[in-house]
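Hey team,

Filing this mostly as a record. A colleague (T.K.) asked me to run one chain through the structure pipeline before their review meeting, and I want the input and output archived in the tracker in case anyone asks later how it was produced. No errors, nothing strange. Just documentation.

Input sequence:
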Amino acid sequence: MFQKSPSLTFFRKSRFSRIITIAIQTCIEPLRASIYLNIIIFWKLAIWTIMIVTLPMRAIAALHRVRLQELQLHGVRTELESVLWDRNELEEELFMAIKKHKMMEIMLEELEGEHEENIVRIQLLEGEVNRANDDELRICSWLHYSSKILVARWRIPNYVFGPTGSGFEGCKSTVERG
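Output structure:
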């Protein structure tokens, strides 16, 4: 495929060419090492120079970052103290609300007890009112009938007992109801 050039084959085949190649490579290696050494020294010198020159700027930037972090830390501490203060106030308000709630429950229980007592009293009073109404109705009807008997038997004039003939105007509504 490849055709080898006649000059390369000459150098490969001859012993003299091998010695010359080894000698050239031996001379090139120290030259290459001296060039690379100079390049490496120059490169390290340049990096150290850049590092020394930029050291104050990096130090100032680091101090600036530290200062900003301190300011942020101070802000966070202030906010934390504020939150803790608010939390304490809210806890106090919560405890006050719980106390008020308990007092309201106690008052509600007292009111419910009074309410039940008042309901019992009202029921008792309704029973008494019903009995009093029944008694009044009985008395009024008795007075009404007894006055009619007196008028009829003893001929007492109607004006003595009133226009209804009972003599008790308060009983008029109860008699009419009965």
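Quick notes for T.K.: The CA atoms of residues 137 and 174 lie 6 Å apart. The longest helix spans residues 15-154.
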